[in-house]
Amino acid sequence: MFPEFRDLITQLKTCDPHFVRLFDKHNEMDQKIKNMEARLESATHEEIETLKKRKLHLKDELYQILRKASIA
Q: Are 10 and 23 in contact (CB under 8 A)?
């Protein structure tokens, strides 16, 4: 995710607890979705789609933080 910000992500993970929470939550959701799609966890199509939308929202938040930090 965001290879162009790899160094900045590493930096923010050490100094921004809010960023870390969002980043970890995004990764947890990603794994949960993969498990659901692989039928390792039961879920309806609607539940999976809802999680995907939430994950996308988190990704947007992360991107905004990265953009602001890269300008500063």
A: no
* Residue 66 falls in which region: left (phi positive, over 0), alpha (psi -120 to 50) or beta: alpha
The secondary element (H helix, E strand) that includes residue 66 is helix 45-71
pTM equals 0.90
User: With left for phi above 0 and alpha for psi between -120 and 50, is residue 2 left, alpha or beta?
Assistant: left
Q: Distance of alpha carbon 34 from its chain centroid, rounded?
A: 13
Going by C-alpha positions, the residue among 49, 65, 46 that lies closest to residue 1 is 65
* 31-71 confidence digits (pLDDT tens): 999 999 999 999 999 999 999 999 999 999 999 999 999 99
- Of 62, 67, 69, nearest to 29 (Cα)? 62
